Structure formats: C-alpha cells, structure tokens
Amino acid sequence: LGSIENTFRNFAMEVIAGESRTQVSLMESGCHFEFDFAKVFWNSRLQAEHSRHIKSFTPDDVICDVFAGVGPFAVPAARKGCRVYANDLNPHSFESLERNSKRNRVDQHLSAFCMDGRDFLRHITEEVKIGRASCRERV
After folding, report:
1. Left if phi > 0, otherwise alpha if psi is -120 to 50, otherwise beta: which for 18?
2. How far apart are CA 77 and CA 83, in angstroms?
3. d(CA 98, CA 75)
4. What tens digit of pLDDT does each residue of 114-124 get?
5. What global pTM score does this model have?
6. Nearest to 79 by CA among 48, 104, 46
7. What distance, in Å, lies between the first and last C-alpha atoms of the chain?
C-alpha cells in the first residue's frame, strides 16, 4: 500500500475483482452515506471517535467541521440538532456532503462549504461578526 500524497487525501486504487465500481452506500452513526470511494477520503476506523464526540453534543451546540469529508461527523451532529458549518476542499467530498445532508434530512441544520480550511475559518468568523452565523461557546 502506498501513502496518501495529494491535496484531497484520497489515493489511487485499482479494482481487482468484480465490477469496476467504487460508489459505496453505508450506514454510520444512524445516518446513510453515499460517495465514490476512489474520489474522497474515508476511514471507517474513525467511527468510534466520531460517536464519542457526537454523544457529548447538545442541540444548542454550534460545530465547525473544517475537514468534513462526506459528513461522517457533521451529518450525525446535525441530526442531533446542532448547528453545523461543514467544509471540505475536495469538490467530490463537498458534493457528497451536500447529498448526504439532504438524504438524512439535516440540511436545515448544516451549511456546507468547499473552501481551503483557513479561508473557511476566516469566512465563518466574519459571518459571526456581522451576525449572519451564530456561535455559542461550550463550557
């Protein structure tokens, strides 16, 4: 196995058996996700870490997920009622994030962005300053 050495954190893959398809559909944290595994970053070993954080959230929390991918952290947080600002630079991840948000009926709680992480944080900070985004500090 090679290392991941590109901007979008995905890697070149070759299907060695069966149909040459990389589109997947799966459930995690009670949410349904669909994406093209060859075009996005996905690590199912992070599920326990996602769940641990999500359990600590309350519906009043505001979450900024700078590297949201297809939404395995952001979508369940929004499903819990949190206000979520989710970002990913990879346009394929961003498209899947938007679809997964709608598929799980949480798009009213989740705003998706396709920006560099630094630009996303600057943008959200500015939106909070001028009152177009809400933010609540956790104690």
Report:
1. left
2. 8
3. 10
4. 999 999 999 99
5. 0.83
6. 104
7. 42
